[in-house]
Specification:
single chain; ten-stranded mixed sheet; six-stranded antiparallel sheet; 15 helices; 45 strands; about 20% helix
Amino acid sequence: MAWPEAWRGRWIWDSAPPEAYWWRSTEARSHTTYLRHSFEVAAPPAALPARASADSRYVLFLNGRLVGRGPVRGEPEFLGWDEYDLGPLLRTGPNVLVALCRYYGSPGPWWVPAAPLGTLGRGSFCFETDACAAVDLVSDDSWRSAPSPWVPQQGGGMHSVPPEVVDGRLAPTGLHHPDPAGGGWSAAVVVSGRGHGTVLDRPPAAPYSTPLRRPIPQLTATVRHPDRIASGRPARAELLPDPVATWASLTDSADGDRRVDVWDVGCLTLAHVRLRIGSTDAVAAGSAVDVVVGEDLRPDGLPESRPRNWAARYLVTGRGEEEVGFFDPVGFRYLAVHAPPGLVVDVAVEEAIYPRPSGAHFGCDDERYTRLWHVGARTVDVCSTDAFLDCPGREQRAWVADSYVQILVSYVTNPDWRLVRHHLALTARSRFPSGLLAGAAGCDFARIGFTMPDYSLHWIRALASYWRYSGDEDFVRHHLPVADAILERYERQRGSSGLLENFPGWVFLDWAQVDRDVVTGMHDALYAAALEAYAELPGAQAVGDLLARTKTAFEVLWDPERQVYVDAVGEVPSRRISQQTNAAALLAGLVPGDRVPGLVERIMDPGRHGLGRLVVTATPASLSAHVADPHADAVPNFQYRPPADFDAEVDVVAAQPWSCRFLHEALFRADRRDLILTSLLRWPIVAGTGTFQEFWDAAPGTSSRCHGWSASPTYDLTSYVLGVRPATPGYRRAVVDPYPGPLRRISGRVPTPLGWLVVDVTDDAVDLEVPAGMTVRAGGQDLDAGRHRLDRSGARRDASA
């Protein structure tokens, strides 16, 4: 429905923090509270539109039933709001709305605080129904605040917020009962933004001055019941205030005072953990039930909690069966609970990921490729929430570059592209005054003193891909100034060499040890690729001269003796060579045509063509096994060091899964899809995870077993092997040019803005179902909507044959 910009509901909280202004801040403390409102309904309407928002997050219930969670991550100025229909959950007579609200206090991987103004900016909630609805509800001081059992915690780390500790003894009784016995809770307090004569106690109000309607659907709330794989294991632990530290102290002990149970979800998931606790013996009130999760099992059969080290605690009431659901979701496969003897604990998990409607498909007669497609699709599913995440188990940050792969995969697996639009807009709003984007949006990393400049180039290429697939001109033109500013900032860094020189910030490129210097070849090649992509956009400025300058100047990196491009140039050219630099040069069209065949052979199979080995260099995962605190020094610096056991005269740095995205694009441009098929079989699938991991190889606890930037095989199989791609923006024209290679049958069902495009390739024929409004180029012919059959030579057959 069309909601007015001005809300009727008022910002409320359980208490008013001290007033703050831009010159006088107040302490930011993590805090959780319940806000509730009871009301009568004589005749429940079929529909009751409502909307809600909060700083930082809320979970909304009506009559004890989950309504939804929100808001989506974003910059505080653009605090999101969510729309609901409460009609199906209403009942005749008394009803009760309950919002569990959490204010995080300090910035973290998925949230950044607003600058406080007046009493706003330190936690708040707002709610209202449609003014014309039969039931009129607004948040105000008639609401009540109920005490929360969440105990404020300190700590957390690079990849987490402080652990959740829930004291069941503090939980209000009858929370979801309209008239609970003994529920004499305090009145909610209206909070407002005050300053320079402005008093605003409802949206829009500074510091949330440009509230945004939720642009994506609610995440899933699918309940899974893991399998218990170990039960009643005796152990001893030092029960410390921090459940993470407590887990670190746990050891097996036959006479221990703890019992450990372990569960296996059967795959990696991103979910809220729920515990159901009962007792067989008298157990003291306040006894701790701790839960930990991990993506792997340690050799001792317990979850490996690194690198995230997520743990939570529930303090029991000792009054029979009780339940708790933890507020924030976490990524994991294995889960362990340790508790005193006499407590019986069961677990369930509520998976919270972006919904993907069924329908998309890829299959072939080689099960290895079919499995790769499905694993890549699941990897992106588990890394998709209110943004595209790097990984569900370690960070959950919305990195700008990682999403490039996930956006491409979304085009071939999910007919709903709203998350693509939202992520592009979210990351665009992270831009620095220079024009570059933050490395990750809506999080702590967006507030540090530098960025990763090459990530802004990936954003331009992602925007161009959205234009190509969607044809959404209004959205692209709206964001064109962001791309313009990125290019303007890049041109300021072009030096006397004609290439980018000494670009400040963290020039990431890949976790592999690609050489970097005054001029870094892969960076310039990615810039050229971004210029090419930018040139496709409607309204783009002419950039042909900029591309030509880069192409001419790039020759300084050419090594005529070895017939490859070196990685970098400082006082003298580097001797190190890599797949990354040469692949980026190929995909950007910087390589003269007569060099392409030899260059491809040299970077794909160097030993057969006069060079040495293809070397997988160090990653943070390999460092973590040898450095006590790898993030303190080693990780920020190892990329700039020469790789160990590497002969720079002949060896070639191998691409990790992330930069294989660009390698495969380069191979496609070079018409070497045979090498893409071979390359795809390198992808490791860790048994039981159902997802792709971050690096080619990593010991348990040193990296992520589910990482969105590794999902390239799914896109490649649909686009390069099945051969389905848009030929004009929005799929008005498409191309279908299958490359079966050794495969005898390939089939796929591909989402487009016009409907499903279905392709079935066999030894002797290609069958197509083309949706209305689309023309497909296949077998040298233009095919309109309907069913078609071509033989493999391109000759037309009767569609019903």
